[in-house]
What we know:
This protein is α+β, with helices and mostly antiparallel strands. It has helices at 2-7, 29-35, 77-83, 151-154, 250-255, 274-287, 304-314, 344-354, 371-377, 393-408, 413-426; strands at 10-11, 19-22, 25-28, 44-49, 55-61, 95-98, 104-107, 120-127, 131-133, 138-146, 161-167, 170-176, 184-188, 193-195, 201-210, 214-226, 229-243, 259-265, 294-299, 318-322, 325-326, 329-333, 339-343, 362-366, 383-387, 437-441.
Amino acid sequence: MRAQVRDLIALNMPLDPDKTQVGKYSINFNEIQEMLAGDGSYEHFGIEQLDEGDQLRLVPFRYLMAGPPEVGLDGHEASMEADLPLEMESEPHSITIDIPQEVIEAEGSDTEDGDASVFRAGQLDYEIPDVMQQNQAVVCTVRIGGEEVALEAIRISEGSTHAAIRITNEMSVKLVDPSNGANFTIGAISSERQAIRRGNFTEWKISVMPLKAGTFSIFLRVSAHFGGKTQDMEVLEKSIRVNGDMTKSLEQVASQIKKKIVFLAADSKSGLLLGRESNKIREELLMSTRRDEFLYTTLFEVTGFDFSRTLLREKPTIVHFSGHGSSKGIFLVNEREAPQLASTQALQKLFGILKKVLKIECLILNACFSKSQAEIVADSIPVVVGTQAKIGDNEAINFSIGFYQGLGEGLAYEDAFELGRVQVGFNSDDEDAEDILTLLKKQA
């Protein structure tokens, strides 16, 4: 009996309360429970997949001692053996069933965790201009396709931005004005929700008309649909420069942009004041005399996929990361928004690859104990800022205020760094607080 239980793929204790994985299938857990509702003597069950055809075997059983075993879904034999009750019915009552379509949420390919998933590997290409003209509508284009689609087929133009993305068979794409229509009029030209064509791309066209001059943000939001659920896959806030001077061309306005800044933040839900830090940076840039030289884009709750994807598509001059860190790396979030360590070695490899296609001039790791990452990444980026110890919210924000004050007035990175340290010292009772920050330069 123990061998049979050990061979079960899952007990009725799934990690997700709505579904459980059996082989390549994602099974609706509530539907399984309803199937067994007619037989009250079996409160617990296992599921195993048969070799022949699309069939599963439900194996209900009942315990002769109170309570189910605390068996996880990791499949570790020793742990399962140790947790099994001493007495159990000698023979389970097996029921072999065909898999009803309504029970199966989707059939998919392996994810990065090795589990079956409704998601599959895909790619996204979009064209949203950095500069627009006031009161003139622009058609923005987004294309999504599977990884089997050739790169040249999905590209919108030579200037469009390409990135990897996890996709389902149905996706939604829309652009969102966070000002609720005060800055942009946005209208979908194509259906917001569309099927993803296998072997080809699916295209969305969206009309965007800026209503006033200045620099404003817009969100690109991509959502996946599966099993009656919706999951946001992309939430990017992109800065757009709106030209209100009819005597200047968009090319002239675009040529004024000298530095693109991408602010990447993770784990803001733990209490870090990441939103406040981002807002302070934006304020300093907007108040600076060289405001027209900067474009500023933010992305929160950054996953490992988001981190590299955003850098590749936005091609920033300055990368600013804010969040938790340790001597072993920085903490991003996973797909469940739980902390996920990006190790020092992973960062070294990432920026070693990115330097071949991007011209990142400065990286700021505004996280605790990030000096070790800064030292290694400095081989790939000319200027890197890190911290030698734990840094508090106020110190991190004050440094950012001073640093971008300096950049906004034309200071070099080294001088802007010193101004950031001065702001930390000015606004802290700890006279050594400014020494937490350290700057490293790429060796010639």
